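Board work, copied verbatim: Response regulator
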Amino acid sequence: MPAKHDKRLLVCDDEPAFGRYIKNVAESLGYAVCVTTEGTAFIDAYGGFNPTTIIVDMIMPGMDGNELILWLAQQKSAARLIIITGFTPDYATHAKILAEYKGLRPVTMLHKPVELELLRAALAPEPM
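↓ predict structure ↓
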């Protein structure tokens, strides 16, 4: 019988190689991981997966990170949110302000390429 995961990470990033990188790191930290490459798949996976942590890329074709943040706010998501961008850090800063204004938990911002230790630190459990 597989162990029940208390840490579940849902990722939305349109770069499959980056999604695999996040998955490998998160699984080594004890997470169950679901990686999606576009917003519709993220939304479809969300309810059944019940993530405790979410990683969202800001710039994606179709539905972008801001749209997903607004959708998460409508769901009243309690998951920790990590926003990642490979473009100007302003995208992540504005998304953080939007997320917190909409009532989501405070977010972590990371910039691509994400260094291994920074990703591990962002995925570390919150202090009690």
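The chain has a mean pLDDT of 92.
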